[in-house]
Amino acid sequence: MLTPAAFAQSANSQPQAAKAPATNVDLKRAQEIVSGRCSLCHGAEGESASPIFPRLAGQHPEYIAKQLADFRDGRRKGTMNDQAQGLSNDEVKALGAYFAQRKPKAYNVADQDLAAVGRYIYHKGNSYSGVAACASCHGPTGDGTAQLPRLAGQHAAYTESQLKEFNKRERTNDNAVMHAIASKLTELEMRAVSVYLSGKL
After folding, report:
1. pLDDT digits (tens, 9 = 90+) for 108-154
2. Where are the domains of the chain?
């Protein structure tokens, strides 16, 4: 199993903002799919109103496409399995490009004290429990890479739910690095990191 540091280097090493969509994707078709399947939960602009659904605006197109393909092919389990059925490879790429184009919005954090705890864990980790700094893979600003998701501005409740799924090994469509990290996080640390990230842009 790769260590967090080794995976960060192999995954692209430098965090980056979501790339502009490739010119060969059908954004018109993507918009049709968004209107018919995606907008009810994720919003037409990728800014989901409910905290249980992830914000997709500004996410890396490659990451979105991979998650959609994983849902479609059963490598990732959840309510999205049915929604992703029937999507072609070209369509998942187009959807990734569509949401990558959407501009994410900034949101305020209500619990600044909890966010301060999360800031420390995100940037420094926890040397006592062996938790690596999240920033070593996802970058100091939470922008991630093409292989690692952009976490900045994500709903706190959604990020926390994914950390818990990794902790319980209910989510298994990664390279197992997140299993090792999440297994060492306390519930307070999961919540704190999630709250901290929700206020970043």
Report:
1. 998 999 999 999 999 999 999 999 999 999 999 999 999 999 999 99
2. 4-15+107-198, 27-101
Beta bridge partners of 131: 126
Classify residue 198 by burial, with Cβ atoms within 10 Å: 0-12, 13-18, 19+.
Answer: buried
Q: Which fold has domain 27-101?
A: Cytochrome Bc1 Complex; Chain D, domain 2 (1.10.760)
Q: Which two tokens stand for residue 96?
A: 């990734």
Computed on alpha carbons and rounded to an integer, the radius of gyration of the chain in Å comes to 16
Q: For domain 4-15+107-198, give the CATH number.
A: 1.10.760.10
Instruction: Check: CB of residue 159 under 8 Å from CB of residue 150.
Output: no
Residue-wise pLDDT tens digits, 160-169: 999 999 999 9
Tokens matching residue 49: 């109103």
Residues near 168 by beta carbon (within 8 Å), at least 6 away in sequence: none
> Nearest-CA neighbor of 49 among 36, 37, 39?
39
Q: What percent of the chain has pLDDT over 70?
A: 89
What is the pTM for the complete model shown?
0.88
Token pair recorded at residue 101: 């184009």
Amino acid type, 15 = P
121: DSSP letter: H
